[in-house]
Amino acid sequence: MKTNRFILPILMLGVVASFFSCKDDNDNALEEGMGKRNSDVPQEVFYHCKITNAEELFSFAERVNKGEYNLNARLMNDIDISRRDWTPIARVLDNSSVKASERFSAAYNGVFNGNGHRIIGMKLVGETNDGAAFVGMLGPSGVVENVIFSHLDINAGVGVATICAYSQGELFACTALSGNVQGSSDVAGICAYNYGVIKRCFNQVTVRGEEVAAGICAFNKMGVVTECENSGEVVGVSNASVGGIVCVNDQLVINSMNHGKVRSGFPDTGIGGICGQNHSLVYNCLNDGEVEGGISAVGGICGKLQGVSSKAVLLNCISTGPVMPVKKEYVGAICGWSSGNCAVTDCYYGPERSQISDGLGGQPANYATMCTTIRNYLNKQVEEVGEIRVATQHGNYGVSMKPWKVVDKTIMF
């Protein structure tokens, strides 16, 4: 079965770094370019800095950290920065003394365009180094786009990722291509904590976390994760909750695919091919990676489904990857464990590759389910093809339904 029949294609754009002296605007270095935050709607961006080498990239980060939070930059070459440890752009302020509401006051709000180049050998090491990433804090106007990171060496504390630790802005077409990303908790291939939009990002590196780990985003707080893809192995080192795309989802995950192996020790906190724990909406996603480990709350799409303040939903998802738990209690080919106001609808699985023959694990009374095998799905005729509109605080997202059977509708989350 070809997966691109079921999920919107992922645009894998790359980018990395270079810097042609970061001059001020009055030095006639103001560059007008096109910042492609959205492939369909290009926007004009004035680039204060064109980066051509490692020295200029470090200089750019230093300027931002001294208060030039709106400085725009564009990479002009591939850049090797392996000879020096990286200090994050807009580094995260001390978690113990700074309120979350104040943390973003020193966030980066410019546009960093990788321009399709690579940043090679970024190194962030230190057990007490929290918020370790290329950008520590990205504000609501901030954008990091079109950049590729290779030969990563990240081994830090809490809130660890390749692109961004805390993001209120937009991460578009960013790639973690090779290397390792690990930390004590809240570790991800792309972003640790997302309050904004992560779109068309790709992870291929191995991600390891002691407690929380994910291929794309550790905690999707009030954000949107769309059209993302993970091929890297995601490992929960001990009693960790893990997800191929997102570990803990509180908002919206759509149109995303996981191919990487997802495994953990013996937790009951949630292991899933798409998300470890889902408290909101996971829609139109596919997992064909192996899900391994855990004693309960293990699923091909979602480990633990919890409806708390709003309904938790798994809708129009497919899992063909094997689900191989240590024990078969509260384990399902689609979802392992559920509680509260939640539903699983129009999800399909391939049990022939799994130790699990049932799509769902625990089923409370309000757990409305419509799950069946892929074989049964392929044998039924699809008569209706439509598009769903998902409205969020970040805008409306259209989701192609082909070849799913569904009527046109809007979901408010």
Description of the structure:
By secondary structure, this protein is mostly beta strands. It has one domain (94-412): 3 Solenoid (Pectate Lyase C-like), CATH 2.160.20. The chain is globular and about 55 Å long. 60% of the residues are buried. Residues 1-21, 23-42, 364-368, 373-385 and 401-413 have low confidence and may be disordered.
Could you outline the blueprint of secondary structure elements for this entry?
Elements: E1 19-20, E2 31-35, E3 43-47, E4 49-51, H1 54-65, E5 73-75, E6 79-80, H2 100-103, E7 111-113, E8 118-120, E9 123-125, E10 135-138, E11 143-145, E12 148-150, E13 152-160, E14 164-167, E15 170-172, E16 175-176, E17 179-188, E18 191-194, E19 197-199, E20 202-203, E21 206-209, E22 212-214, E23 217-220, E24 224-226, E25 229-230, E26 234-236, E27 241-243, E28 246-249, E29 252-254, E30 257-258, E31 262-263, E32 271-272, E33 275-278, E34 281-283, E35 286-287, E36 291-292, E37 298-299, E38 302-315, E39 318-319, E40 323-324, E41 331-332, E42 335-349, E43 368-373, H3 374-378, E44 387-392, E45 395-400, E46 409-412
Parallel strand pairs: 4-5, 5-7, 6-8, 7-11, 8-12, 9-13, 10-14, 11-15, 12-16, 13-17, 14-18, 15-19, 16-20, 17-21, 17-22, 18-23, 19-24, 20-25, 21-26, 22-27, 23-28, 24-29, 25-30, 26-31, 27-32, 28-33, 29-34, 30-35, 31-36, 32-37, 33-38, 34-38, 35-39, 36-40, 37-41, 38-42, 39-42, 42-43, 44-46
Antiparallel strand pairs: 1-4, 2-3, 44-45
